[in-house]
Structures are given as C-alpha cells and as structure tokens.
Amino acid sequence: MWQQNKRKSKIVFLWMMVILLIAFLGGCSWLMYKSQQEAPISEQAALDAEAEPAISSMEVSIVLKKSFVCGVESEEKLSQMVASTDQVIQDYQDWQLLSQEGNHFEFGKQVNDLAPICKEKGYFGLSKDGILTLYEGPPEEQKVIQTFFQINTKKLESALPMSELEFLQKGIRITDIAEYNSILSSYEEFANLTGNVKKKVEADEG
C-alpha cells in the first residue's frame, strides 16, 4: 500500500513538471514572437526620424518704409529669424516689396494718414514767398515739413477778411487728416499754381 502511494506521488510530480515545462516554453515562445513584431516597427521609426530634414533658420535684415500723406517718410530697421525667404514675403504680404538683395529686404507702404509728427506739431502757414507750407511747430520757427502752392494774397485779401490772412501767417494748427484736407481745399482757389513743390521730411523710427 505504501509503495502504491509512493508511485502515485511520483506520477503526479512528473505531470506537474511537464505542465510547468510546457508553460515555460510557451511563455518564451510568446516573448520571442512579440519582440520580433516590435523590432521592425522600432527600426522603421528610427529610420524615419533620421530621414526627416532638420528645420533650419536664417537671419534676415528688414527695412520698413512708410510714406504719409503730409510728406513725412519713416524708416524702421529690424532683424528676424525665418525658415526661408518665402516666410518673409508671407509675413509682410500687406507691404510692397521694394527690393531684395540676399538676406536684405526693403518693404514700403503708403499710409493714408498724417504722420505722428504732423498730428503733434503740424501748422499751416505762409512762407516769405507766400507759399502755403506745412510746418513742424509755428511758422516762425521755420521747420518746413511740406510745401504746396503759392497763395495769391491780393485775391485772398479781396475775397476774405484781412484777419484771415493774418491768421494764416501766424499758423493754423492741425491734428488730423480731415483738418489737413480742409485747409488745402479752402486755400486752393487762391493758388497761383506756380510753386506746387512738396518737400518730404524723413523720420527714423528704428
């Protein structure tokens, strides 16, 4: 009886060893299969990463030029890092490209408004030659921004009160483009139309 039980125990032990061996071999086979499936994906990802071109950038110099109604021209200089020259054109698509030399760009824009200096210090007045002139500050300071046409003072005196001419000689302050256009249209009928010369003043903004 004891020998029979001992034989049965050996048989159970052998079966358990067989089951464990099968489980071990099965686990190893599954791990090997999974690693073989993942390896090509990882290798392909590494190849794709190497194939992607590196995003490079370059520095460009840009000049922005503005021309205002009152004759003032401003200029701003700046530098910018871009991926390509096409990006520069895209970034300043609202500007007109004036020139391009290598990494140097110049853009221009016509501004339908008065320049800041004209709004802050603009005066209409008469020069010694009777030319309607836009000044920076009162006419007596003689800081000319823009000249227009010669006024026929005799015609002006006969059509308007004498105080009107004195008012113009002392200087008429303007602060916006509406006042600017109003003064021009008011005195245009008294123009001799012989001195329609415009002088532009440059203002450096950068």
UniProtKB/TrEMBL annotation:
The chain crosses the membrane at residues 12-33. Signal peptide: none annotated. InterPro entries: BofC_C, BofC_C_sf, BOFC_N, BOFC_N_sf. Residues 112-188 form the Bypass of forespore C C-terminal domain. It comes from the Bacteria. It holds the Pfam family BOFC_N. Keywords: Membrane, Transmembrane, Transmembrane helix. Gene3D superfamilies: Bypass-of-forespore C, C-terminal domain, Bypass-of-forespore C, N-terminal domain. Residues 60-109 form the Bypass-of-forespore C N-terminal domain. This is Forespore regulator of the sigma-K checkpoint.
